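User: Quick sanity check before I run a bigger batch. Here is a single chain. Can you write out its predicted 3D structure?
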Amino acid sequence: HDHKTLYFGANILFKSTSRGDAWERLGGDLTRQLNRDTLPLMGRKDWKKDAVARHAGVAEFGNISTIDESPIRRGLLFVGTDDGLVQISRDDGKTWNKVSSFPGVPTLTYVSRVVASKHDEGTVYVTLDNHRSNDFKPYIVKSADYGKTWTSISSNLPSNGSVQVIREHHRTPKLLFAGTEFGAFYSSNGGASWARLPNNLPTVAVHDIVIHPRENDLVIGTHGRGIYILDDITPLEKMAEASASPGAYLFPAKPVTLYNENSSFPGGRGAAAEGERTFGAPNPAFGSSLTYFIRDSVGRGQQVTLGIFDSTGRKIRDLTASAKQGMHRVTWDLRLAPAYTPPRGTPANRQPRGAFVLPGRYIAKLSIGRGGSEIVRETAIEVRPDPLIPLTPAEYRDLHAMRLRSGQAQAAVQAAVRSAEQIKAEIGEARTALKNSSGSEALTTEGTAIEKEIDDILTKLRGRDSSTPADDVDDRSRSEPSIQARVDDVAGDIGGVTSPATQIQRETMDRAVADLQREAAKLNALIATRIRPFYQQLDSAGVPWSMGRPVQVLK
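Assistant: Done. Predicted structure follows.
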């Protein structure tokens, strides 16, 4: 309620309204005020004074172990103690109501967490941990009447995992999360039943849980194994609805911001000499996470597809979807499909990527079936502009158009280069076939001439490689950037920034496209007027078959 207010627990609850500069006591001793030396230890009380170190290396006994204030009502306070009490004040600590017993819970059980409900003023959750008395059972109790009566909600939690923490979802009151000695569990029905949280959380003691109110991410703090984050737990909120949906269910998608990732963040690829001195955990996958639930098995002959559509209903991207029953999550990287398909075997870090989409509203559609009997589920995706980048809608459209053009230019360069390389390989094989046959000298000369023209075109397209010797050491083609280099440079530059293309980038692209059109025209003319007749002449001369020529079958 007030960011300057702090609470501190000893055997008495203290409060500061000045960030800790001054403190006041809220009532008296809130514990049982027991003498630890009078309590049984390992079933005995008659220990000699020097036989057991009751107070060595342990906290003072008789302390407040957990504190919470109702997020609904200021001054509604709850505290739990290490000797098994829960104290409740409805008047900012002036008076307290003591709760000393709970259904099914042994007396003096340590109160590990007390949590006030975010939805109902009188509701409070309490977890208790009795492992110090060799009792590892899970204890979670709930009161809906300010602590007057209590109900156990431990239900089917594993019998050997004491509970450290419980949290209530800020939007869905029946969605609860519990951290135990052996992992984290969730309940979608207010504690009537529990299930272990899925994914890669190890079997480890979970000591704290926080639900990020804006991102709806589940943040889990473990004992000695770090922090784990389950991104966007909306599917857990909607699980009951998903289970009732026939066939499949596509969960709502969070709004997503369009931005350029920084790959030089400490701990990432750009950490360089920092090595292990700087730690950085991996970020969530960039883009819009789409979660869907396949309830029923998919029949033979049916397909599961997941597509992205723009505001006009045009499909702009197909995503890979699984047909297996259960929960699935895929991420759309906010890009269009790549402008071209790379050659087989292209490394992952050299795969082409499509242009970013424009900020706006998109639709994800999950389809199961085939033809008119399809089950279709939809959810909206809001792509927001980067709030740190002051681009107008017109500037966004201009940048987007330039990215599309550069992608189309890259696709055309790829087509020209790969076609020319294929023809070069075919002509090389034809020349080898000529050497092993009785073909005329004219055919050999023509093959050599065609190969040289192809080399010249390839030099303009992609630059000179080691297999193509230069005519002399001063050949300008060694230093002049190729068409491919110019197109890729501009595409890479404008693909990784959030500013309109510069005049130089536009002129560079215009000239590269003009040069590409010229070389592509040469290549097309060569194919139509020289290569096809050349292959026909090889067939007529009885030269053995080579790539690119029709297959002749004996009659």
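The chain has a mean pLDDT of 90.

User: Great, the batch can go ahead then.
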